[in-house]
Amino acid sequence: MQEAKVKSLQKALEILNCFIEEPLLGVTEISDKFGLYKSNVHNILSTFKVMGYLEQDEASGRYKLGIQAFKLGYALKDTFSIIKICQPFMQELANKSNQRVYLAIPYETEIYYLEATYPIESVTLMRSVFGMKASYHCTGLGKAMLAYMSQDFVEEICSRPLKRFTENTITQGERLKEELELIRGRGYAIDDMEHEFGIRCVAIPIRNAAGTVLAALSISGAYRDFPEEKVESYALMLKEDIMEIEKRI
Predict the structure, then answer these.
(1) Segments of the chain scoring below 70 in pLDDT
(2) I want to staple 183 with a disulfide (CB 3.0 to 4.6 A). Which of 61, 142, 147, 233 is the partner?
(3) β partners of residue 107
(4) Is-contact 137 197, C-beta < 8 A?
(5) pTM across the whole model
(6) Pairing of strands 213-222, 100-107
């Protein structure tokens, strides 16, 4: 990683990044976290507030992300051409399967969600997932991508503590490697209530001509709507559309 040239700007952005994990923070909390004088923290937060990247809660005096941060994130979304390529396919998949469809990309040791589409009948349930993150080991999207990534990266993920989310979560590295081998054999991953109880999904990676994993698509829904025959059907739908998507990348 390259060294930052402007240390003061680096520190200010590190402070802004804190709001990704904690939506509401005060001067004292940030001062303690970074070992900075409260006056310095106040000046940084006040500057972000003036620029619209932060807002101040009237009741508590603590800070939260402002509209300018949202606008910046929305502009970033438009730079991902893969969203534009996938979105029409995703909407068609959502309508055909009557389930939710998700698009995510690999980013360092986690996956990041870029887009979600919903069946027409479920328009009231729509919500933005852009920028949300999750782990590789417990999601269909994550396992689908991990199965086709480098052995070194697989070893890195499998050697880390694997957090348990449900009783079905894979928490042992060797067991995860076995699951990845199974995924490569059948061509798709399944999240069998491993991240969230009652939710099942099937996922397939999107790769370029060199075989590099770029993203993954999943069809997700309530466990009761995912009997084995439906899993096979959803996997086939995904495979057909991903073949067309990969031609356009």
Answers:
(1) 1-2, 73-80, 121-131
(2) 147
(3) 110
(4) no
(5) 0.72
(6) antiparallel
- Closest to 213 (Cα-Cα) out of 184, 233, 190, 186: 184
Instruction: Kindly report the backbone phi and psi dihedral angles of residue 113, in degrees, each rounded to the nearest multiple of 5, phi listed first.
Output: -80, 135
CA–CA distances in Å: residue 10 to residues 6, 45, 134, 143:
6, 14, 25, 33
- Rounded CA-CA distance 70/93 in Å is 28
pLDDT in tens, 105-138: 998 889 999 888 998 866 555 566 666 889 999 9
Q: What is the C-alpha radius of gyration for the chain, rounded to an integer number of angstroms?
A: 20
Cα 139 to chain centroid distance, Å, stands at 10
Q: Strand pairing of 110-117 and 100-107?
A: antiparallel
Token pair in block for residue 8 = 């003061």
DSSP per position, the chain: -PPPS-HHHHHHHHHHHHHHH-SSB-HHHHHHHHT--HHHHHHHHHHHHHHTSEEE-TTT--EEE-HHHHHHHHHHHHH-HHHHHHHHHHHHHHHHHTSEEEEEEEETTEEEEEEEE--GGGGGG----TT-EE-STTSHHHHHHHTTS-HHHHHHHHHS----SSTT----HHHHHHHHHHHHHHT-EEEESSSSTTEEEEEEEEE-TT--EEEEEEEEEEGGG--HHHHHHHHHHHHHHHHHHHHH-
Structure tokens at 49: 């507030």
Sign of the CA dihedral with 202 first, then 206, 209, and 210 last: negative
Q: What is the largest CA-CA distance in the chain?
A: 62
Inter-residue contact 102 to 116 (CB < 8 Å): yes
